[in-house]
Known about the structure:
Chain A is α+β, with helices and mostly antiparallel strands. The first copy, chain A, contains five helices and eleven strands; from the N terminus they run βββαααββββααββββ.
Amino acid sequence: MAxxxxxxxxxxxxxxxxxVTRDGDVHHLRDLNVGISLSGDMDEVHLTGxxxxxxxxxxxxxxxxxxxxxxxxxxxxxFALLLARHFTAAQPTIRHARVEIEEYxxxxxxxxxxxxxxxxxxxVRTALVHSDGPGGAESVVSGLKDLVVLNSTGSEFHGFIRxxxxxxxxxxxxxxxxxxxxxxxxxxxxxSEYGGSFAAxxxxxxxxxxGTHSLSLQQTLYAMGRRVLEERPEICEVRLTMPNxxxxxxxxxxxxxxxxxxxxxxxxxxxxxxxxxxxxDAAPAVPAAWT
Amino acid sequence: MAxxxxxxxxxxxxxxxxxVTRDGDVHHLRDLNVGISLSGDMDEVHLTGxxxxxxxxxxxxxxxxxxxxxxxxxxxxxFALLLARHFTAAQPTIRHARVEIEEYxxxxxxxxxxxxxxxxxxxVRTALVHSDGPGGAESVVSGLKDLVVLNSTGSEFHGFIRxxxxxxxxxxxxxxxxxxxxxxxxxxxxxSEYGGSFAAxxxxxxxxxxGTHSLSLQQTLYAMGRRVLEERPEICEVRLTMPNxxxxxxxxxxxxxxxxxxxxxxxxxxxxxxxxxxxxDAAPAVPAAWT
Amino acid sequence: MAxxxxxxxxxxxxxxxxxVTRDGDVHHLRDLNVGISLSGDMDEVHLTGxxxxxxxxxxxxxxxxxxxxxxxxxxxxxFALLLARHFTAAQPTIRHARVEIEEYxxxxxxxxxxxxxxxxxxxVRTALVHSDGPGGAESVVSGLKDLVVLNSTGSEFHGFIRxxxxxxxxxxxxxxxxxxxxxxxxxxxxxSEYGGSFAAxxxxxxxxxxGTHSLSLQQTLYAMGRRVLEERPEICEVRLTMPNxxxxxxxxxxxxxxxxxxxxxxxxxxxxxxxxxxxxDAAPAVPAAWT
Amino acid sequence: MAxxxxxxxxxxxxxxxxxVTRDGDVHHLRDLNVGISLSGDMDEVHLTGxxxxxxxxxxxxxxxxxxxxxxxxxxxxxFALLLARHFTAAQPTIRHARVEIEEYxxxxxxxxxxxxxxxxxxxVRTALVHSDGPGGAESVVSGLKDLVVLNSTGSEFHGFIRxxxxxxxxxxxxxxxxxxxxxxxxxxxxxSEYGGSFAAxxxxxxxxxxGTHSLSLQQTLYAMGRRVLEERPEICEVRLTMPNxxxxxxxxxxxxxxxxxxxxxxxxxxxxxxxxxxxxDAAPAVPAAWT
Lengths: 291, 291, 291, 291
């Protein structure tokens, strides 16, 4: 037995950069949270504390701000690629870069001037990019999180296994609610038109959620992923995490009241958690794209 | 010296009730978080544990669900009044009821059926109602929280006190961002048309924020409260809490770059916190309405 | 009707200052979160944006750091008083200062050197100080929050009101759990020995919680406040907020199992919320001390 | 191209079970948060909504409560194994079970009775177990999270790469603080004495953190993992995630004050994030153990 260093990475997490573009009196706002993880020739820093191969996380943070000024901020996938390629190209000791970005959405305040904004939506757009440097592999995963959706009917659940610990009653009409985390991998990392692709994929998710008469949350999840793949050729794999945000019908009989799917208790914990992948089986698997 | 019981109250907090109204295939969704606090003849329960005057918080929770079924859920101010009046009227030992409601907003999923919804906005609508029972005083405070707004220009800050601990430089162009918590008291608790009033007050807040060239966040706060009072005669007092969500211009000079109000670091802590009241001086003060 | 400015205040919230004292190789660590709110002659800044009366919140933050260096950090009540007195004495426009401090506790790592620490406990010590300036009123409220306690027996709940919405069954043996927020007002603001007073008050709260056979959470709350007043003459008023963190006995009968107070579900929401005050009726009321 | 279902799993997350053992007047308390994820023959439920292979998450939750009654709760690794083995043995469609448990620690209230407890520490003990069913593979990963530690000296950082975006100054005396998430894999899943192993591994982590004169957080991380492996033969791999909780020395020169490592600002974001693995290179890799 020998004790050795295994997989490792380091970087600056959660750099909150806000970029304003002035187009005359009309301003454009981008609001990001950037996380960087680098890896490479890092044995010495772990074994002896020799930092000769280490680009400080403080410099990584500075790079985010400087790049926002030098290059502006396009789609977050592009900004992430720009950063990831920079670190792997510029530093011989950095063999691999992972850049993760969250984007917060803002709308213009109606009847406001061109420089007034209001945060819109709980939902966050995400990007996760990997780069192995010039000539090396790259991957781009787009996504969203905190997209909360609910169908107040059109959802059933029955025909399941009943074991000695089963008390759940089957139902043919329940509320189905979830908070979608979706991520999708681009077939050709550098070639997608990310802005339009995101909007379309998001629309696919919403429409498939709304349009699926559901016999289980798994069925809805699969339909959502499938819809994205059917409509978006630039996407080859979709991963979804969907907690079942239970809405329990309240028993009002003790108070002499019926409750015909009208009054629900929205529970916090525990909750069902459904996770699944839908993919084009012809696309090469890239497990590293998701980590 | 004698040790005595002072002010006290008790109740059920955070009952999460969701109500669905079916209008044929078109459903309507209300999603609330209800908090109840009751007070009255509660000496015995504190001094000896005698619960004869205590309506269990569990029964309060049941009442929320049953009332949603019996009365439906109108505007949250109305639902809060209904509950507050019930407890004070039904139980002789309950002299005072306070009901606080948060409402989460949902939009219809475009091109979805009539029963598909998506959570919209980080923002929460609020109501706070007090009732002293039949013939007693009542108050209604409406509001919102988590309304995040930003002006990317049109904000200055200078002319302030400089003491021996002051290093801040004056500026005539900064980002001004805040997360608004606003509450407003209705002049005549039972008479407002709460839905329209809320939409209009919210619009006033947004427009005054966007439309005020700001020399200080205090000035913006006052303008927002004033706008509500000017336009909404049913409202007599506005209280605002507005953290200054600092966006610091990043110094890019070390990298040979200028930064003409383009790249900002969005800081978390510490933050300025501005709180203020704007009111009609002819309206009687009701401090108890806000607690 | 005239629209006027009402009560207002402003300041820097959540300045996170950490202070290290080196006593040879043995270091001492203080870890605080400081919030400052000032008020005074602030009409102009609200009405016109004239900042001539305004000490920037940035300067307030700097003062916290500079005072930590100049004066060290004694008990948090003392540090809060120092700051509050400074602002009201130094600036004629500042008539009133409110300083709120949270302190996070650290323990030494056993068998570590004198400079190695581990965060201990979820619990936070608090102080809230008001000062009206030289010769003016002062108040000091000490406290704690996030103190989570549980009695696994010795708690009953019965004899309560039963109305048409009551389904709760009485019990003579339940789990009683709560997360205590306690604050206590010092009789003579400048005279307490705050460190010892805090430790003793905390011990009173814990011992009264543990030692009270409870017929209601209100009874326990009152016993806790009373214990502090009985044992600590320097304290004249105690305010407690105690959510009832429900632990529901799980019905295991469907699985052929009994459950003799052995297996519980720890619920999140809704929860009972009990708030109460215990005071020496001879002490003058100072409502402003608590806001 | 064909669209297919990829990896998937489902289960009940965050079942909060509290178990009380009565040993005469002395009670023992276990407070857990249990997450279950099952996978197996789940194509049909995704493709058609046929639930014939699905054990409801509600039944999984019931199983947690029933098992707590039937078997008591030993070490969390054992309880997780019991559950994981049950699901894979009992249901032919369930090929794989993953059980994750968090345990919250409680201490006895001093001078309280045997049934009075106070939550102790921010720190959470964790277990993550995988089982492929009777005769199949098993893995057990123990761990902890939210362990916050700080060295107020004995930490340096210099000799790092300087690129065009580097402004950080080298230092030979800084505060080093982190919030440790550590997980460690047991060599022989069923054979460890988990309680003693956990206490010893935790002690190793603390002592190595305290005892390492640090030239980089990576060096400290590696020393911590190495210490566990050196002292605990039952453990073959350690994974650590350690954010660098920056404490910035405050520049007090503008106020005419020095600051000889005395006053720090504790920053929230951004932060460095260091992740690494230390392992026995003779132990077979089991990547699935960690997912």
